[in-house]
Amino acid sequence: MRPNPTHQVTDVTFVRDLVAREGFATIVSTTTAGPVASHYPIVLEDSGDGLVVLTHLGRPDERIHEIDAAAAAGREVLVIVQGPHGYVSPSWYSPGSSRAPTWNFTVAHLWGVPQVLTPEENLDSLVALVAHFEQHVDEPMWLDRDWATPVARGTVGLQIPVTRLDVKAKLSQDKDPTSVQNVIDHLRAPGPYSDPALAADMERARDEGTPAP
Prior knowledge:
Layout: E1 8-9, H1 12-22, E2 24-31, E3 34-41, E4 43-47, E5 50-58, H2 61-64, H3 67-73, E6 77-88, E7 102-112, E8 115-116, H4 119-134, H5 145-152, E9 155-161, E10 164-170, H6 177-188, H7 196-208
Antiparallel strand pairs: 1-10, 2-3, 2-6, 4-5, 5-9, 6-7, 7-10, 8-9
């Protein structure tokens, strides 16, 4: 991503919260056929050595991504987690401010070498993944291991220890307080650019001094 210290985030808690809230990622690999991308739910765990992405690929995506070759060669994959984002009109700024339109967003880029899980580890990961999302359901349906075992054979489980990350939260931090409030108000209002989630992120960035999700 384009370097910009104003929008750079280094707080690991921010990354944990972003992944926990969004739960869906784009996985990008460099292969002999060129770059490929797929989209899957993820969870982020802590190990003794740092953050670890847990996810899976549906077959035959593991072949398309050449995961075995990447693991053997120590080749990184990129995991992209996108938070709320939306258009910001310069008409929302206070008089005399910038006339340039922009796009506010939150995103995390996580790199790491994939490690292929054993079938049992993959099943554990799928059970944990379902439990993570079902916890907010009124009548949760936990993943039954006996039922899930044959289904899990259609997936390849991955853990990706995060070796480096790049996180940006562009939430009008460089604008004056009146402009920031105007943008928040417009994002909360009904209309084609309504985005309450993005407005909430902007409010937290302003009120807490950090752009925590």
